[in-house]
Amino acid sequence: MSRTTNQLVGYAFGAVYVLVGLIGFTVSGDHAFAGHEGGHLLGIFAVNGLHNVVHLLVGAALIGAAAAGNTVSKGVNTLVGAVYLLVGLIGLVIGSGSLNILALNAPDHVLHFASALALITVGLAGDRIVRRAHAHS
Question: How many domains are there within the chain?
Answer without folding.
Answer: 1
